[in-house]
Amino acid sequence: MDSSFLGQAYQHPAPNILADVCEQAATMNDVIDLSVGDPDFTTPLPIIDAAMKAAKAGHTHYTAAMGMPELRQVVSEDYNHRFGLNYQPTQAMITVGAEHALFIALKAVLDPGDEIIVPEPCFSPYIEQVEMCGGQPVIVKTKPEDGFAITAEAVAAKITPKTKGIIINSPNNPTGMVMIPKQLKALAQLAIDKDLLIFSDEIYYDYVLSGHQFVPMAKYAPGNTVTINGFSKSFAMTGWRLGYLLAPQWLTDAAGMVNDGVTFSAPTPSQYAALYAIQHHDELAQPITSAFAERLHYLETTLNQVDWLKVSSISGSIYAFLDIRATKLNSVDFADQLLKKAGILVVPGLAFGKAGEGFERLAATQPLATLKKAVAKLQQAKWGVKQ
Ligand code: PMP
């Protein structure tokens, strides 16, 4: 037996640049790794303690399939208090990370051949997930000259009778764009008029730079929005694998039905960790998010002084998206040269779709002192630049 036994999609898998970079990062010493979007902070100690305490007290069993009731309650209350929304605890479902939340929500709504509009550049699992759920991703290319904005007009142009929804991500990975209320409102109106769901990945909602504001999609179209979020970024909890969705009740219920056959419940100690985290949201998240804000501000200002480089304006997230088009290199070759000649690992923009070509994503997941070293190396770099 060999790999020809596998399902067709896995016999000749499409290249996965992001996975390749992660694999490379794991094997290399002595590189400045700016590739993976995993905050470099260890989870704050009180969160770890809360999980340990719960596990020692015997909370080592399954929880209710939809998540611990008290966690569903605080997650919905947190959104309600912050943003003036009106979620009931039953509308929240606790999942094994945000990625899992998106998957089960998509699975719950897609029939074979249904279309989901995905603006690119984007977090690449969006495309895979739509396909795994039998759907058809329909790409909308956003443009650097528009600040990679997702506009209702561009989305409207891609709607067909098969369109069921759109996936948005603000603050955005990889571009650092944050949608403004006017854009959110226009998209909300479109979704309401055309009966579409908006899958709104808000995992970077705490990562907004000063002068910008995060507003959740559910503010404008609560009946058409599936809010996807989690604990990985705000509380540096990637390894705990904990996220959630907030959706209209009928959809949360259906996502639960999907998940009964997949993971049943999310890890119990992680749910206790998350409960503590969200109950102490601001005091725990703020030191992490402000460190990233300082790093991104540093990257944006210093890298924009390099004459062959531009940084598209960063409003939020944990990434800088570097415009390398002046080098005339494609994003994969540039990343390769950067690694070999300067020992800096980044993710080529192509990993986020064709609209990311000509860019590199730098994750600010290293201390400022390390970022300063990386910038010094980049400032000296001349490779491939037309002199
Ligand atoms: N959405 C986006 C936009 C991300 O960048 C990431 C992590 N890189 C995730 C979701 C995954 O989140 P989680 O760890 O909660 O699955």
Structure write-up:
This protein has 387 residues and is of the alpha/beta class. The chain has 2 domains: 3-43 and 283-378, Aspartate Aminotransferase, domain 1; 62-280, Type I PLP-dependent aspartate aminotransferase-like (Major domain) (Aspartate Aminotransferase, domain 2), CATH 3.40.640. The protein is built from 13 helices and 13 strands. The chain has a 7-stranded mixed beta sheet, with helices on both faces. A 4-stranded antiparallel beta sheet has the order 9-10-13-12. It has a two-stranded parallel ribbon with strand order 1-11. Bound molecules: 4'-deoxy-4'-aminopyridoxal-5'-phosphate. Residues 37, 97-99, 123, 169, 173, 201, 203, 230, 232, 238, 243 line the site of 4'-deoxy-4'-aminopyridoxal-5'-phosphate (PMP).
Quick structural gist:
Helix content is 40%, strand content 14%. It folds into two domains: 3-43 and 283-378, Aspartate Aminotransferase, domain 1, CATH 3.90.1150; 62-280, Type I PLP-dependent aspartate aminotransferase-like (Major domain) (Aspartate Aminotransferase, domain 2, 3-Layer(aba) Sandwich), CATH 3.40.640.10.
Mean pLDDT over the residues: 94
**What hetero molecules are in the model?**
4'-deoxy-4'-aminopyridoxal-5'-phosphate
Q: Whole-Å distance between the termini?
A: 55 Å
Beta-strand segment tally: 13
Strand content: 5-15%
> Briefly, what CATH class of the largest domain?
Alpha Beta
Low-confidence stretches: none
Order of helices and strands: HHEHHEHEHEHEHEEEHHHEEHEEEH
**Largest sheet properties:** 7 strands, mixed
Helix content: 25-40%
